Amino acid sequence: MLVMASIANHQHGQKTNIRPILFLYLLGTFSAALAAVVFSFAFPSTLHLSSSAGDISPPSGIVEVMRGLVMSMVSNPIDALLKGNYIGILVWAIGLGFALRHGNETTKNLVNDMSNAVTFMVKLVIRFAPIGILVWFLLPWQPRFLHTVGLRATAGRAGWLYVTGGAGG
């Protein structure tokens, strides 16, 4: 919704300031990846997966990866929403944004109002996120949880929180 609203409300000739945003996005992405690699070597951990590796086959090459990417771009928008196909959702949002550039002002106002509503909900979720993280961290330290799950899993969760908290900020 936010991408669609920003594209639909863009006026021709208006300065967008997209270059610094893209630069900061790339800088943040690469520094987060670098921090993740450094912390994974500094604090090694094991991951126990429930499914066997024999059930999953990796892509055979770049052609198969690119084919999957293109196929996810042209998916049905409802199917993309239901299956969490973020590439498909993004492509449809960009396409609808360009199509809505030629729409009426009332349509653009509706899209802008929906964008503001989504922004409000995201801000609300972000404000309450520390409470959820605190509960997620403190729940394993209850005696009945320690008895059923064990101290090793609880210590693993504490280590994970330490590594991600240290890498994130």
UniProtKB/TrEMBL annotation:
Sorted alphabetically, which keywords does the UniProt record give? Membrane, Transmembrane, Transmembrane helix, Transport
Q: What stretches pass through the bilayer?
A: 21-43, 80-100, 120-139
Q: Which Pfam families match?
A: SDF
Q: What is its main location?
A: membrane
Cited InterPro entries: Na-dicarboxylate_symporter, Na:dicarbo_symporter_sf
The Gene Ontology CC terms held by the record are: membrane
| Gene3D superfamilies named in the record | Sodium:dicarboxylate symporter (1.10.3860.10)
Membrane topology designation: Multi-pass membrane protein
Would the keyword S-adenosyl-L-methionine turn up in this protein's UniProt record? Answer: no
Q: Which GO terms describe its molecular function?
A: symporter activity
Cell compartment(s), UniProt? Membrane
How is this protein named in the record?
A: Putative transport protein
Gene name? sstT_3
